[in-house]
Amino acid sequence: MDQFLAFTVVGLSTAAVYAVIGTGLVVTHATTGVFNFAHGAAGMLSAFAYWQLAVGWGWPVPLALAFVLLVLAPAFGLFVERVLMRPVQVLGEAERLVMTVALLTGCIALARWVWDPNTARPLTPFLADRPALRLGPAAALTWHQAITMAVALAIAAALWVLLHRTRAGTEMRASVDDRALAGLTGADPLRATRLAWVLGIQLAAVGGILIAPAVALDAQQLSLLIVSAYTAAVFGRLRSLPLTFLGALVVGLMEAYLAGYLPQNDYLPGLRLAAPALLLFLALLAFPHRRLRGRDRTPVRVPLPTARGTLLLAGCVVLFALVLVTVLAQDALLSYGTLFPLGVIALSFVPLAGYTGQISLCQLSIAGIGAVVWGHLGAHGELWALPVAMLVAAAVGALIALPALRLSGIYLALGTAAFAVVLDRWVFTLPAFEVLGVRVTFFDQGSVTVTGPDLFGLHLTSPAQLLVLSAVCLALASVGVAALRRGRFGRRLIALRDSEAAYATLGGWLLVAKTAVFALAAGIAGLGGALYGMQLQTVTADRFNLIAGLPIFLIAVIGGLGAVGTGLFTGIAFVLPAQLMSGLGTWVHDVTALLVALAGMGLAHNPSGVLARMRAEWAPLGQNRPLLCGLLGVLGVCWLLAALDVANGWLLFVIALVTALLLRVRAAAAQRPPTDIPPEWWGVGRPWRSEDGEVLSRATTAAS
Fold this sequence. Notes:
Layout: H1 2-32, H2 39-56, H3 61-88, H4 93-114, E1 133-134, E2 140-141, H5 143-165, H6 167-177, H7 179-184, H8 189-211, H9 219-224, H10 226-235, H11 241-261, H12 269-286, H13 307-327, H14 330-336, H15 339-347, H16 349-355, H17 363-377, H18 385-404, H19 410-425, E3 433-435, E4 438-440, E5 447-449, E6 454-455, E7 458-459, H20 463-486, H21 488-498, H22 500-505, H23 510-536, E8 538-540, H24 546-559, H25 566-580, H26 588-601, H27 610-623, H28 625-643, H29 649-671, H30 692-703
Antiparallel strand pairs: 1-2, 3-4, 5-8, 6-7
Helix pairs in contact: 1-5, 1-6, 1-8, 1-10, 1-11, 2-3, 2-4, 2-8, 3-8, 4-24, 4-26, 5-6, 6-8, 10-11, 10-12, 11-12, 12-19, 13-20, 15-20, 15-23, 15-24, 15-25, 16-23, 17-18, 17-23, 18-23, 20-21, 20-23, 24-25, 24-26, 27-29, 28-29
């Protein structure tokens, strides 16, 4: 009994922290309609800032707490509301989700850059020098645990008073339902939104500081603790504070009891770590609330790729691979070889998120399944194992499609994120086991050795061979995804994204369509995972976790989820900057991740992606044959000089880049219509503009 009481005390203390963080999520979502994926990262940064002030610089604890909670946290909340979220408030739910995912990635990268993750930073619990309160022979309540519970109860009472007994709280609750109507009644929706973000970040800061002494002060671990708070918030339907506290109580006690009573064997330790994510996944399915079925409406148009443009893209992918093979040394090919496999994984977002509007954050985890299947079945280069890896990954994607019928938007993103955490923390850590006589092996608590395939009697093992193979697979996958968009099924997917209800009313089968597109995307990701494993030669579970997949998702969004060229763009943007700056130090990885996050935060300025803008800017050069031939000639000469090692590669790269930019400007200038065309020839001598009608109307009125 004493042991049970001890675990109960620990569970209640943990539940109090989850309740504080979860209420911050609820306050933000209930007021602004935004689910903040970076909520835990805000608490993580606050914990690091508190350590820096109290331990690193020796500030008094009360002063450090006051500065973090009353200065830094509100300032960060105001920054998020004003700079990041306000520009995307008029966009779709997906754009707001991407903004918070970018903020999460940026916070983790910033923390790892500023505070070396290899250095231990322990935090002392509050009042640790005082004796604990005895609750029995084996149970005790520390002062830190008592303070945590008291703070949680005080916050709950203060929030209830704020939301139900003050004008500011009424404004906050009214703003999310109808901001325009709330403004007509005299409320200030902007002030309510600003207050909600400040309170939400402050609560995240309180939770991060309270839980930091009990866990390692690690950026990734502290940020993922938010999964437990996600579960508590979903228990409360993202609306109810009492139900959120109940959910936090369930999660906290469950973690404590699993730590104390879970049988000790090789299969269950990971279950304790993955239990909050598994509970979140089940809670999303068990609570079919109206708000959990919100439809993600996005104004972003999905382009229709042409057959000529798609074949040109495929040719460019293969040609780019040949250029890399001929100009790079063998050791450099090992580093740049992951470009095309990661591009295949990123391409899986296009039919799923770009065409259908289904947001999945577990594509890299599914790619891990493809890598594992190929590593075990294709250990000797058996080519048949590659389609088997794709089929197994597709089967996993089809299983994920079942909850997709119930969830969409941020809730589907939550479910897929929880699935990724379950794979990373539990499934990928399992030792080998048998199911119906079939031996199943994942990473087997270690790493998996991956080799290249046998192709036409040739065993592909060198980095150059595997790089070309990956490029060919990316080219073929891009052609297939483009053909899907131009076909009948692609048009059905676009209709499904626009309106699920209308799609079903017109005779479409939601189950078949969603299952098919999830399976297709998962199969593409499985192919990319197998190719990724071939390039790395040895893979571990850490390569395929949730945090590792977020930058890939962000870059795909930056490129444009509806563009087939997103695969190549993502691979280049993810690999090239990090490799080009790799010689500067170990901090380069964190800086590149931070740059990716900053680019994702700029989504509001170009929600269609940069590929659409690049296509429009470079189209004049592609249509000008003399200038295009000149550019190809310069590129060919630079390639030849680099392959023969006649000139410095960087110099040739700069020459090629400057030539391309100058010719693009020249082509745009040549295509620009003359400005002295008489008004009667507008629409004939030059394209008709939207402002021409107003100009002619004013001129006619003035003349009369």
